[in-house]
Design a protein that fits this description.
The chain is of the alpha+beta class. Helix content is 25%, strand content 26%. The chain contains four helices and five strands; from the N terminus they run E-H-H-E-E-E-H-E-H. A five-stranded mixed beta sheet has the order 1-2-3-4-5, with helices on both faces.
């Protein structure tokens, strides 16, 4: 049975860190850094028979803005619609219903997020960033 939970005590931090440590957008994030990002975010775990198979987190003020990050499904469970279940649960989460602007960055999963109403930025020329390496 598939379930999605926002209970941070259920999150398998070593599982999350092990997956993220080699991903292009997070490579090298330590266990302590993963824990800090979880502590500062609204998190979602997806579970198959109580075993965690995926994760996502949202940075938000709960009213104006939410940024979706670190979304993944373990490789052995991909292609079964679990990412859609996870994103759907996030979009329907009662505590996030007032959020007006959702953003995310992806290089390879546009098809997934488009199903939930995400589009390219209407005015990318207004967006700026600062990246510290």
């Amino acid at each position: 049975m598939i379930t999605v939970s926002t209970d941070k005590t259920k999150l398998d931090i070593p599982f999350i860190q092990n997956f993220l440590k080699d991903i292009y957008w997070v490579a090298g994030r330590t266990m302590e850094e993963v824990q800090r990002t979880i502590d500062a975010s609204f998190c979602f775990g997806i579970y198959l028979d109580d075993k965690q198979i995926g994760f996502a987190r949202v940075i938000t003020d709960y009213v104006v803005f939410a940024y979706l990050m670190d979304v993944f499904i373990d490789e052995e469970h991909r292609g079964k619609g679990y990412s859609s279940i996870l994103i759907d649960a996030m979009m329907k989460e009662p505590q996030l219903q007032e959020v007006k602007i959702w953003r995310l960055a992806t290089t390879d999963a546009h098809f997934l997020y488009e199903k939930f109403g995400f589009t390219k930025l209407a005015h990318p020329e207004k967006m700026m960033e600062k990246v510290i390496k």
